[in-house]
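Record minuted for everyone:
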Amino acid sequence: MKVSTEDYESIVNSLKGQLPSLPLVMDELMTIIADPNAALYAIKDIIKLDPSIFSQILKVVNTVQYRGDGEPRISNLNEAMQRLGLEKVKRIALNTSVLTLFKGITFPSKFSPESLWIHSVGVAVTSASLSEFLNLPISDQAYSCGLIHDIGKLAKLKFDQQNFCIELNKSEESGWNNHQTEVRQNSIRHDLLGGKIAKEWGVAPIIEAVSKWHHEEDRSKRLDVEDSDTHRMIDIVQFSNEMIKDIEFGYSGHGIKKAPSNRIMRRLKISDDGLDEFENKIAQELVREKEHISLLSRK
């Protein structure tokens, strides 16, 4: 039986009050990130609302990479933010908020909130880096979109963990990815559900669109997307999602790997040589990111 729009609406309604709500801090952060003229002082006012973000910023800034050997420990928010810079501060703040969402859901064995979050961080870093590599002025938005793209999996886990586990096992047995399993079994799709959740949260439309269509290559089938920049963002996150699975950075619920989409590579104007260059670049970035992920995931 085909799943209807009403089925998705019913799930979203049933999860109200159960699925962790989008933290106010994160909502405001994503609004600021969409503003290219955002400054450190604007971020600072938001960080003051959440002591856990301040704590994570101090953890990162006091690593050798930022503080250096022999220098006194940094405990002042102004100094920490100046040392880290706007981009890093925004990413720490976003990840602290998102990790709270992931830890608010019970996961099955062989799957964990941290592993899915690490996968999402990898997609976020790769999406932002690819935007810069292609000289597109959307790296901040790309990071947010990559970080939230799999939010539908959290909703599925909360709504019916037993059935989701059956789907995970089916994927492993059949050599399908999660999305293929959902489509072939006519079950609730995490991408479409993620779009509904993002809409319910009231986040930026581009994040909603990416959550909803990050498995759809054919732009003509992204029914409610007309803006070329949104299409390009979906392409970037979809491309990054597959690359991160190939690198095995985190775990999204399956280990199925796909070759880079030739269709998306053509649309993004990525040549084979450009792909090799970018793969080397992102491999180095992810090595640096691992230390920060370890810091942020510690209690």
Summary: The CA atoms of residues 37 and 61 lie 24 Å apart. The mean pLDDT is 85.
